[in-house]
Amino acid sequence: MAEEYHPHSILLTGGAGFIGSHVCNYLTTKYPDVKMVCLDVIDYCSNMKNLGPSLNCSNFTFIKGNILNVELVSLVMQVHKIDTVLHFAAQSHVDRSFGNSLEFTQTNVLGTHTLLECAKKYNIKRFVHVSTDEVYGEVLSGRANEMAILSPTNPYACSKAGAEFICQAYIRSFNMPIIITRGNNVFGPMQFPEKVIPKFVLLLNENKKCTIHGDGVSLRNFLHTSDVVKAFDIVLHKGKVHEIYNIGTDFEISVLDMCRKLIKILKKEGNEEDWIEHVPDRAFNDSRYMIDSSKLIALGWKANTDFDTLLTETVEWYLDHLDWWDQEYIQSYLLPHPIAYAPKTADFQKSPSTVFT
């Protein structure tokens, strides 16, 4: 087995977001001798509360800024002597990508390119690029392994695939030490309620119906944050550069059946169908994703298969933390089809920076 990699100073992008914050908190507290620098623009779905555990650690630094800001990224890498990048920062909501795909291309493609160029300049020793299983497109039967052809079907997935191709170009052209991960949908505490599970929890808590896109029979795999953080811990330390690792679970459920599980948890009485409303489908809705995670499993990772228990715990967290977001602010994100409009300015290059240590 190859020698484990041990980082000294990590730049984690998108650390105030959902998955990024869980990974940041896990690694920052588990490895107190490793410096963790979090760079986040604090977008609509970011939340500094997500970083509570990290903010209490002496090895943690938070910087408010945009990954598109070349000067800022270069300065951060130089000043903090960064040797490792964990790149989580992304626009990630499929529904919003149908309304403003340009924003997704700017952040996901150009943002990744900016980081790679800076990483090349400062001789980063390991660059973990976080992608998605959606780059495979529909997996109608069997499982997609890491060698499967990419066939993304929506603007979000296309932007993530585009970022991957730039990563591959830097591997081949400059021999950069890049690792790519492709993960399932993730659920757990602190997820912004535009995503299906927290959205349905909050709708039901407000005695509103769950809005199902189309017939709701599309199958999805949901991976809990407790499994995801361990996966990235393993990829960071044991993963092989220039490799791709799927991060997924064998548990598969339709959106409609998952909705019914939430109704059973939150609405003990009455007919389940009374809490379901079918709305027009997305512009395109993949019917199924299923990925083969055997490469990651071979490194020692294993997903928790007790979905029902984890789902119940997640619901309880949201009910106990209704003040995590301003309730008036999130109402527009609980709509069946949230729309992101094109920005009024095309200047994505500059953003103010703020440092918290």
Q: Within the largest sheet, what's the order of strands?
A: 11-6-5-4-1-2-3-14
Distance between the termini: 37 Å
User: What count of structural domains?
Assistant: 2
Discrete helix count? 12
The overall average pLDDT, rounded, is: 92
Residue runs with pLDDT of under 50 for 5 or more positions = 341-352
Determine the CATH topology of the largest domain: Rossmann fold
CATH architecture of the largest domain: 3-Layer(aba) Sandwich
Number of strands: 14
The chain-level structural class is: alpha/beta
Give Rg in angstroms. Answer: 20 Å
CATH class term of the largest domain: Alpha Beta
Shape: globular
Please describe the biggest sheet, giving its number of strands, its sense, and whether it closes into a barrel: 8 strands, mixed
Order of helices and strands: EHEHEHEHHEHEEHEEEHEEHEHHHE
Residue share in β-strands: 15-25%
Helix fraction bin: 25-40%
**CATH-level-4 superfamily name of the largest domain:** NAD(P)-binding Rossmann-like Domain
Describe the structure.
- This is NAD dependent epimerase/dehydratase family protein.
- One of its GO terms (molecular function) is dTDP-glucose 4,6-dehydratase activity.
- This protein starts with 8 loop residues before the first strand and ends with a strand.
- α7 (196-205) packs parallel to α9 (255-266) and α9 (255-266) packs across α11.
- The model is unreliable at 341-352 (pLDDT under 50).
- It contains 12 helices and 14 strands.
- It folds into 2 domains: 9-184 and 222-250 and 288-304, NAD(P)-binding Rossmann-like Domain (Rossmann fold), CATH 3.40.50.720; 192-220 and 253-287 and 306-338, UDP-galactose 4-epimerase, domain 1.
- The chain is of the alpha/beta class and 357 residues long.
- 46% of the residues are buried.
- β5, α6 (155-174) and β6 (178-183) form a beta-alpha-beta unit.
- The chain has an 8-stranded mixed beta sheet, with helices on both faces.
